[in-house]
Design brief:
This protein has 108 residues and is mostly beta strands. It has strands at residues 4-8, 18-22, 25-31, 37-41, 55-57, 60-62, 69-71, 88-94, 97-105. It holds the Pfam family Rieske.
């Protein structure tokens, strides 16, 4: 499969996650405070909570329910109670389009 349009760059607000679904996979897209765009799996591995409802700080996305923070770059949890990582997807920018292939995750 190839990358598909997930949203436009102009739809993204800084430090505000946007939930999208591509081929049945929920993905949280974040433009961080450095204007870098990240895409990680939207489900917290601890409580099956939508991460796009969480809080962005620096290069992390924190689950609102139990406070586990995940690295936007690696998907690894940075604190308990989560101990399993979430997938991180490759992001491509084409003009104003954010492209993601939901079948390909980053090697971290």
């Amino acid at each position: 499969m190839s990358a598909q349009r997930a949203c436009s760059v102009s739809e993204l607000e800084q430090d505000t996650p946007l939930r999208v679904e591509l081929d049945g996979i929920a993905i949280s897209i974040v433009k961080d405070s450095d204007d870098e765009i990240h895409a990680i799996g939207d489900r917290c591995t601890h409580g099956d909570i939508s991460l796009s409802e969480g809080f962005v700080e620096g290069k992390t996305l924190e689950c609102w329910a139990h406070g586990s923070a995940f690295s936007l770059e690696t998907g690894h949890p940075l604190n308990l109670p989560a101990y399993e990582p979430v997938p991180v997807f490759v992001v491509e920018i084409d003009g104003d389009d954010v492209l993601i292939d939901p079948t390909v995750t980053k090697e971290v």
